[in-house]
Amino acid sequence: MVNAVTNAHLIAMMQGNDSLVHDLIDHFIDYTPALVDRLEEAMDSRDWNAVFGVSQRLISGFRLMNIQNVIEHLRSLDEESVRAMPSKEQNEICAHLRRSISAFE
Fold this sequence. Notes:
Layout: H1 4-13, H2 18-44, H3 48-64, H4 68-75, H5 79-84, H6 87-102
Helix pairs in contact: 2-3, 2-6, 3-4
């Protein structure tokens, strides 16, 4: 489950409504992995427009969960680096995103 610092962040953001916190976490866990899959597909096909669009959606989700290191990493993706990125690095990025999501399970 989510660490205490992030949990405190979510509780403060949802003004102490535990039900909303749990709903937000459930939504994040249920829907974010599909976005990571889409990001991985877009990176594999070197489709910068899709990478940019999906990364922006992921940033929104990770911002709600207060995961700053992931947000910074997603923001650092640019067209040139994505097009030149080896498959191994793409896989590592997506694995890192998946680990960040699984921390909330």
